[in-house]
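ARCHIVE CARD
Drawer: 12
Card no.: 0347
Subject: one protein chain, sequence and derived structure
Cross-reference: see card 0346
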Amino acid sequence: MMLRYSNINRFSGAKAYRNNTPRVITRKRSIPSLGLSNLSNQDRTTSFNYLSPKVAEIHEKEYSIQRSLGDGRVEWSGATPEQLTFMQTVYDINYTRYSRRGTAYPELSNSELDTVTGNYKLRKAAVPKFKELLEAARAAIVANGVNVQISLNSAYRSPEHQFNLWMDYFPNYYNQTRTHRQSLEGGEYGDKAAQYLAKYVISRISTPGFSNHNNGLAVDIRNTENGEYIRNSSLASWITKWKASWLWSWLVDHANTYGFYQETSINEPWHWVFRASNLTSSQGLKDYAGALEKKVLRLRQHVPNEKEYDVVGRIFKKIVRGTPEFATLVKNENENIIFKDEEGTGADRYMTDKLSQKMNRLADLVIEEWGTHIKLRVTEAWDEDNEHASHSIHYEGRGADITTSDRDSTKLGRLAGLAVLAGFDWVFYEDNSHVHVSMKK
């Protein structure tokens, strides 16, 4: 008897996408040890069971069958039929979710890739920029006299490799969520449990074919500080340690200079993505447009999901025209940006250099998204007329309110998504008239 999912038909469409995939590559799966190293292979097959569901007529059947990304059938050595069915349901949920957003990335050819170091490869446009990042980081390590080593843990990996990783990681995610799933309506194998675990998994590893690793644009950085390797682990303790490290601080301040950004939908301080928006069109911006995630924010959603002041910091004092602080602001003269300037003083053009750079990148993305007839429009930047709350980021020229030149409110969700991709530190789809963006000092 197999477990039944009352809504499993909602996710079965995923198979239709995969059945059109011509590649069928198989490999024999390894058996996770997980404390079972002293058991024979036969013993592992019967003993490797994270839970023992009370389901009648469980078939004594080996589920270590060779599978492939081509048909999307998962495998789990030693799992019961019920566990394997549950695993397949979780995979189908996430595959279907991603498939609704767009087509999976195909495997990249050698002609599209270049070597960063060792066996690690990226798309050709990303390689020289990441090499520059590595060189700059190592120079800063020497200059600051810190005991830090930076290298790579991962770069491009094929969708097939991603599929194998997904299956390798799943048993741990399954075990980590067991207690909570047991408390849900329908039990640990029910529909709500499958939905919960799907969300849990998707925040830790992308569905095969939809990762920026599969598109040759993402790197996972290896960080060793004072002789300790700081693990790239989703456990809170390791994330905290990563974000307390010297290398994290350096990357936050400098990685954007080389076109690498944090992927805000996940909390992985080691994971950095090359954004094609950092290229001029002659360098292949259009070729890489498809690599930019089709992120659309919801009304009142902000990225990251933290308070603005906790992300970008509070203001020190209001900047006044004619002061030394005002002299640190830059005047943005980008012809692809329209400034409202309702005051007639040009104040909306003044902003910090960091904010100005992100505005220029966003202006390129807006044109790439909607064509040359639509431009980025800035309605507020630096505020010298006390029009905002007393502690507003606008007073230091670190915040701006934006829309598109056609003032089409239906574009704001996507504009907010593009702002995230452009690298603003905080993005807020504030209301139906504008998006708010801001930067750290």
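Annotation on reverse: The mean pLDDT is 81. The longest strand covers residues 218-225.
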